[in-house]
Amino acid sequence: MGVSDSSWGGRARRLFRRTGFDIVRYAPEVSFRAQRSVLFSAQRIDVVFDVGANTGQYGAELRADGFGGRIASFEPLRDAYGELQRRAAGDNDWLTFNLALGDAPGEAVINVSGNSQSSSLLPMQAVHRENAPTSAYVGTQTVEVRRIDDVFDEVVPPGARPFLKLDVQGFGRQVLAGAAASLDRVTGIQFEASLVELYEGEQLFPEMLSELAARGFNLVAIAPVFMDASSGRLLQLDAVAFRE
């Protein structure tokens, strides 16, 4: 149930909307973040692979929501990684790695976005730049690439129930290919996926969901991430899937 427009909350909500913000009940039926917390508790998640960590926003959210297990954050960009390290400092259960994850170890050239968060190992399509001008690429960096299979046992203790979060700007297919041996040990996954091609050659949501279903994962939650502001068309979403 939402906030009544005639209530004090409704008046506050209208005021906040004028500044570009909104007030939403923090409850699983209306809040993706609250739903994720319930799912983590129900599924007994105790390790999180935070792939595409940027400056550590996801890990900080988990800690604020009461998650006390291990977080392993992977971020390839130097500046973003520096901020991630500072954010995780003093938290012995928050590990950080200055790496990209993909389907083969080595080095790769990553495209650096003006807003940092849209940086990708793939070329960006015009529809992305048109709807988010600050996402345009402004440079490149050479980064180290490893596979999840290479680091899984370093991060996940025996008997743990790990959760994999992917925010890799179109590179999800390659990251999952690098988890061929370890994905069967993953309990759940959150992945950002596009409904139209925002990055050249990326795997779109229906195909990604189908491949995860074939590996035993079932969709349990979705949330919008990025839309075409002129048409209202959803371009990108976050999805969560767990094993039965």
Describe the structure.
With 244 residues, this protein is of the alpha/beta class. It folds into two domains: 1-25, no CATH class; 31-243, Vaccinia Virus protein VP39 (Rossmann fold), CATH 3.40.50. It is built from eight helices and ten strands. The chain has a seven-stranded mixed sheet with strand order 3-2-1-7-8-10-9. β7, α7 (172-177) and β8 (188-194) form a beta-alpha-beta unit. The radius of gyration is 18 Å and the shape is globular. The mean pLDDT is 93.
What layout of secondary structure does this protein have?
Layout: H1 8-17, H2 32-43, E1 47-51, H3 57-64, E2 70-74, H4 78-88, E3 94-97, E4 100-101, E5 106-113, H5 126-131, E6 137-146, H6 148-155, E7 162-166, H7 172-177, E8 188-194, H8 205-214, E9 217-227, E10 234-243
Parallel strand pairs: 1-2, 1-7, 2-3, 4-6, 7-8
Antiparallel strand pairs: 5-6, 8-10, 9-10
Instruction: Specify the overall morphology.
Output: globular
CATH T-level fold name of the largest domain: Rossmann fold
Structural class: alpha/beta
Largest sheet: 7 strands, mixed
Q: How much is the radius of gyration in Å?
A: 18 Å
Order of helices and strands: HHEHEHEEEHEHEHEHEE
User: CATH homologous superfamily of the largest domain?
Assistant: Vaccinia Virus protein VP39
Tally the helices: what do you get?
8
* Euclidean distance between termini CA atoms: 28 Å
In short:
The chain has helices spanning 8-17, 32-43, 57-64, 78-88, 126-131, 148-155, 172-177, 205-214; strands at 47-51, 70-74, 94-97, 100-101, 106-113, 137-146, 162-166, 188-194, 217-227, 234-243.
